[in-house]
């Protein structure tokens, strides 16, 4: 599918989701989340329940519309899932701004979902990379997206401290985007305690060690990669990086 056509299609789906939200009258102070009391009031009018007084009337009222209230709430949860699916589709097509918006919408339905916070962090990081010029407005936008990315990854880790993808994403952000490798080190150490053979994380950790002048730790990490990987490209990269660290450590005398 042509990129412009795909963009129009996904945007149309996004608009349909927004319309679906409005259809169920679910706007609340926190965003598009179910307002149970409002739904019940509308349901009472529709079912002719009114204000039951006796026990029999109350039981009859419950039987008439409690199940339908739950069905409506379940439908709203499904909208949150659709927003996540839409966000993933946008992300797959490198439409990072649209993906970011979709994942943020999904969070209004599932505010304690660590996966959604991870995706927000990932998309915000990509958006920061798009602000390449040196203007003040671009620098401000880049700072905004980097801050959003950091906060989203951090929230994901508050919800799930051993969440490997969020640990990796935040460590990459600290190492390569915000020049704070000292913050990346404990994150990557935690990650490798969960996934002991994650060579991508080892490369970032070795880089963070190098940036913090812990050359021996960086060399040990590259040795660890060489012992683990069967990928020729990764092996060559680890050996080359190790030599560069040895040169820095011994003033270019390493062989």
UniProtKB/TrEMBL annotation:
The chain crosses the membrane at residues 12-32. This is Uncharacterized protein. The keyword Transmembrane applies. SMART domains: TPR (SM00028). It comes from Treponema maltophilum ATCC 51939. Gene3D superfamilies: Tetratricopeptide repeat domain (1.25.40.10). Keywords: Membrane, TPR repeat, Transmembrane, Transmembrane helix. SUPFAM superfamilies: TPR-like. TPR repeats lie at residues 80-113, 199-232. It holds the Pfam family TPR_16.
């Amino acid at each position: 599918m042509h990129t412009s056509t795909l963009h129009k299609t996904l945007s149309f789906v996004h608009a349909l989701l927004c319309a679906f939200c409005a259809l169920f009258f679910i706007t609340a102070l926190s965003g598009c989340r179910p307002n149970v009391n409002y739904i019940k009031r509308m349901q009472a009018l529709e079912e002719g329940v009114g204000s039951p007084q006796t026990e029999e009337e109350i039981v009859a009222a419950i039987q008439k519309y409690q199940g339908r209230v739950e069905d409506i709430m379940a439908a709203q949860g499904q909208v949150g899932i659709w927003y996540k699916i839409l966000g993933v589709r946008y992300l797959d097509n490198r439409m990072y701004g649209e993906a970011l918006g979709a994942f943020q919408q999904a969070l209004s339905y599932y505010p304690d979902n660590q996966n959604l916070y991870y995706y927000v962090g990932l998309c915000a990081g990509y958006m920061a990379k798009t602000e390449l010029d040196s203007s003040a407005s671009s620098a401000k936008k880049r700072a905004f997206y980097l801050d959003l990315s950091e906060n989203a990854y951090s929230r994901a880790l508050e919800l799930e401290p051993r969440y490997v993808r969020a640990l990796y994403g935040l460590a990459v952000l600290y190492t390569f985007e915000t020049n704070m490798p000292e913050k990346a080190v404990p994150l990557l150490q935690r990650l490798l305690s969960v996934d002991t053979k994650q060579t991508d994380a080892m490369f970032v950790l070795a880089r963070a060690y190098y940036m913090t002048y812990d050359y021996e730790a960086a060399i040990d990490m590259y040795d660890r990669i060489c012992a683990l990987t069967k990928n020729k490209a990764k092996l060559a990269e680890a050996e080359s990086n190790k030599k560069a660290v040895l040169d820095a450590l011994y003033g270019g005398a390493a062989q």
